[in-house]
Design brief:
The protein has 100 residues and is an alpha+beta fold. The chain has helices at residues 19-33, 40-52, 69-79, 84-94; strands spanning 2-5, 8-12, 64-68.
């Protein structure tokens, strides 16, 4: 279950979810309400930034992880500032990721 309210994306942790998958799902939810044209490498970069915000949490099924629209928006803006070289590297990582 994911919800967006009060400029926050809440992700309910599912079996097999880790911080990266929770971040990926949060970005996907955010993009439903605030569409952006992003390359796969940019999405992986954003996912990594968001993942770092929840590394101190032990995730268990049913937990809720929250991301603010500001945090996600900032990560998106940072992804747009990647150099061509950096973006190429992130595109390589993205080849291993399955996006929803």
């Amino acid at each position: 279950e994911t919800t967006t309210a009060n400029e926050t994306v809440k992700i309910t942790v599912l079996r097999g979810d880790g911080p990266a998958l929770a971040a990926r799902r949060a970005l996907a939810e955010y993009l439903k309400s605030s569409p952006e044209e992003l390359m796969a490498g940019q999405k992986v970069f954003i996912e990594e930034i968001l993942r770092q915000k929840i590394t101190d949490q032990v995730l268990t099924v049913g937990d809720q992880v929250k991301f603010t629209f500001d945090d996600i928006g900032t990560a998106i803006e940072q992804s747009k500032q990647l150099t061509e070289f950096q973006l190429q590297k992130w595109e390589e990582y993205a080849k291993k990721v399955k996006f929803n």
